[in-house]
Design brief:
Chain A: Keywords: ATP-binding, Nodulation, Nucleotide-binding, Transport. The complex is a heterodimer. By secondary structure, chain A is α/β, with parallel strands linked by helices. Chain A has helices spanning about 45-50, 90-100, 105-120, 135-145, 165-180, 190-200, 215-225, 235-245, 275-285, 295-305, and strands at about 5-15, 15-30, 30-35, 60-65, 65, 75-80, 155, 185-190, 200-205, 210-215, 225-235, 250, 260-265, 285-290. Chain A folds into two domains: about 5-220, Rossmann fold (3-Layer(aba) Sandwich), CATH 3.40.50.300; about 225-290. By secondary structure, chain B is mainly alpha-helical. Chain B folds into two domains: about 50-150, D-Maltodextrin-Binding Protein, domain 2, CATH 3.40.190; about 175-260 and about 270-430, no CATH class. Chain B has helices at about 5-15, 20-50, 80-90, 105-110, 125-145, 150-155, 175-210, 215-220, 225-260, 270-295, 300-325, 335-355, 360-365, 375-380, 390-415, 425-430; strands spanning about 50-55, 70-75, 95-100, 115, 165, 170. Classes of the chains: A alpha/beta, B mainly alpha.
Amino acid sequence: MEKLLVVNNVSKNYGDYKALNDVSIAVEKGSIFGLLGPNGAGKTTLIRIINQITMPDTGSVILDGEPLKPDHIRYIGYLPEERGLYKTMKVGEQALYLAQLKGLSKREAKERLKYWFNRLDIGDWWDKKIQELSKGMAQKIQFVVTVLHNPKLLIFDEPFSGFDPINANLIKDEILKLRDDGATVIFSTHRMESVEEMCDHIALINKSNKILDGKLVDIKRQYKNNIFEIGLITPNHTATTASLKEKFEIFPTTFKSINEELKYKVKLPASVSTNEFVNYLTSQGQLTHFVEVIPSASDIFIETIQNN
Amino acid sequence: MNHLPLIIKREYLTKVRNKSFVIMTFLSPIIFVGIFALVAYLSNLNNDTVRKISVLDESGLFLTEFKSTAQTHYKLLPNISLDEAKKGAQTDETYGLLYIPDSESLESISKGITFFSEESPSLPLMNSINKMLESKVNTLKLKEAGMDSDIIKNLRININANQETFKGEETSKLGSGLKLIFGGAAGYLLFMFIIIYGNMIMRSVIEEKTSRVIEVIISSVKPRLLLLGKIFGTTLAGITQFLIWVILILVLMTVVTSIFGIDPSAGSPSQQAIESTIDGGTQQVLNDILIEINNLPITNLIIMFVLFFVGGYLLYASLYAAVGAAVDSETDTQQFMMPILMPLILAVYVGFFTVIDNPHGTVSQVFSYIPFTSPVVMLMRIPFGVPIWQQVLSVLILFGTFIGMVWFAAKIYRVGILMYGKKPSYKEIFKWLKY
């Protein structure tokens, strides 16, 4: 796939403090890229470098085949984590101002704003001051301003903070729609369930270094340990448990069910195929539950950071 | 993509539409003129009260000297004792009692002169009484020494040295006074402008930080552009406010003076004017003033005023913006304000003390080249005649420093606006320069 953004071996020091150490990422066109990492890992620094707010000490950034240059800011829409709007300015005026700073003409900006305000059902806020709006309402305006100039690259830092579940869903759907319309999204968040739902590709940064990078499914495949969760109804539970223990590594587990059954997590050795395992289980009794345990993004996050 | 006009426009409109800005714009001149009217009214009241002063002259030498004026009435007491006179004065609501004893020699008379009063008498009154008595005693002394009274009259010659430059231009004390007023007004105006609108810039930078809008903006425009836009926008708002103030004050002053019939200059007639009035009347003074104004290097003054005003203001404004970027809230600005205010205050002091004392002395010269003090000091020196090359050099240094300062401020600004939560030390800010 074609890459929209390539970051090559970028390092950045603040005085003696190393904020980024030789980090490289590549973001495919039309994908959603999750940039993950604990607080203070260097995500924001990387995002600011892409936005040309700070310059890297070494390394380069390529946007759509060209080295990053000042003019590129109009192709990028950035919703920073530390965000806000001028409190005493009116919504419409402010949105127009910010859109014009991104290079839209006043007329064009007005048209697009009308479209977005109608779409998000906030048309009657035009003449209100930001300080009269709730935090969630202001966040909506902020979202509109970020995407208004149809940027090729959208960077969202914690886009859902401050939204109630309904609006969070609305924004999520808008982001997915923008992706479907051809935009590329970089997405930095601590909310693992949204990573799970939305990201195609993730990179994990910890203590200024990239420690994990790849397609989410590939990473999951890499992190799965061949563990299966099973539920089994047998005539003699103790005997079956003993025989399972003899053959495999097992751990107790719980899941919701309507039956009284044996519940175990079983680690399958590489020598035993899934089919053989199922055959063995059915020979023992009635199989009611059989699921491969796939690590969640959250599990991967915690495991990698702790091992690092 | 040139965003500068857009930023300037936004900054300007936000400032101008701000409620407190509007209120201050219209309220300040009203308060100013109100205070002026009050002071003028009160000092008029003060002038209306008449002081009665009893005089007991036992020597009889000074009887002809006491001439009552509108504000001071002298009442010569007949031959009564000092105690009676004191009692009379106390019951009579007299301001004071001047007692002149009788004696053989003028010396012992002079030593015995006493002024009795309820409270300490006013200083100007005592001065005028002393002066009057002194001159009478001196005349009497000269007569004793055998001088003719005509000769004594002719002895009095007032000296008012004529002043002329080597190039042959006539100067005068009146002219020096005017130059001082021009220079002082220009310097003071700049000083006020920097403090009021420098603070405004600083607050607007802090506001962008606290409302967290800064990172959104900074992903669209370069920090240096935003910094410049802020400075220019606020300056334009400042000029607007200043113009409205000047116009309103002029209009209100005219209205107030015509309603109350107060002559604005009546409150504090200068010594100069009084002396000249005695020689040649008010018309003459006005003519002199007009001639002196014409003698001032007007074109030079105006051009340099604009240059130094703009340069000096921009220099300080960028410093204020840098301070705003470095801190999180206005309360944290204190430690950084001192180094900004110090040179400014120093400039005003040098201007008002050293320049007045010696416009072309070493101290005045040095400070009129240092960019942080030159706008005020040079503006005050120019009316006294400064060679053009010196002025140009000073302006060049000023604008050179301004460009350097914008670079410096932009560096601090770039890093500072994205720093939240901690109060930086000077050491840290120095480190930011290297980021």
